[in-house]
């Protein structure tokens, strides 16, 4: 397995998990049962992870000379609940030469 992007992958998986927790657990707790703290802390953690993911995206993109469209794809992936997981798969396909157009 290629460990080239391992920190980007770890941060991406954590960011995706925090987004899912925010959408499926924290927001219902806030809007159904009026527990505001759930969104406050989960949202804060997700925000930090999102910034970390975008930062790692830039670092790896510069380090490995990505084309601009990979930056866009990675950023859009960060906005979707399972996007970082899909982006990670596409990176692996690109690195292994199995990329499908």
SSE succession: HHHH
Secondary structural class: mainly alpha
Strand content: under 5%
Number of strands: 0
Tally the helices: what do you get? Answer: 4
Low-confidence stretches: none
Query: How is the biggest beta sheet arranged?
Result: none
Distance between the first and last residues' Cα: 22 Å
The domain count comes to: 1
Q: In one word, what is the shape?
A: elongated
The pLDDT mean sits at 91
- Give the C-alpha Rg: 15 Å
The helix fraction, in percent, is: over 70%
Structural summary, described in words:
With 101 residues, the chain is mostly helical. It has one domain. 78% of the residues lie in helices and 0% in strands. It has helices at residues 6-31, 36-63, 68-78, 83-96. Helix 3 packs antiparallel against helix 4 (83-96). The radius of gyration is 15 Å and the shape is elongated. The protein starts with 5 loop residues before the first helix and ends in a 5-residue tail after the last helix. The model has no long low-confidence stretch (mean pLDDT 91).
